[in-house]
Amino acid sequence: MSKKLAIIIIGEGDTKLDDSSLPFEGISIQELFVECVPCSLRFAVEKTLKVMADKSVPEFVFIELEGPAFPAQIKESLEYMPFEDLSFLLVYLLDAGTFSSEIAKLPNFIIKQIRESDIIGINKIDSTDMAKVSSIRYMLEAINPDVSIFEFSARDHDEGFGKFIETLVGN
Known about the structure:
Blueprint: E1 5-10, E2 27-32, H1 37-55, E3 60-65, H2 71-78, E4 91-95, H3 108-116, E5 119-123, H4 130-143, E6 148-151, H5 159-170
Parallel strand pairs: 1-2, 1-3, 4-5, 5-6
Helix pairs in contact: 1-2
Organism: Methanococcoides seepicolus
Protein name: CobW/HypB/UreG nucleotide-binding domain-containing protein
Domain CobW/HypB/UreG nucleotide-binding: 3-150
């Protein structure tokens, strides 16, 4: 049985996704324009979820934030929305080919995002050597020893990607 997923993209209007652009059923996509994320995100997301729920109540909501956002602060503000059984995971996705494995080269906001994450997905492991992937994993574990880390190639839908998705759906 497939799950209903809502994707809310907090962006600048350059998203090329909508409900008809994905080859999957049960996915609803909304793009939000929020000028001050800490000030108004909760209310914008709440309103958007209510509109989406009029069509179909989502079982999972994926909120994509661009730039130097602080997910834990946003999660905290969203936890008070009036929806039953709503829970949150902070998921951080990174590109193994372009991500630095040296803590000193990472901006502070990225270190904070990693530290606040519940799950980290190291994507595009097929675009670099496994030594770099191992180095990235080691660095991530040094920043956040309690995080669950998954290595995968989403493009290839490999075993690691399957485990990543199962974990997201299971929480």
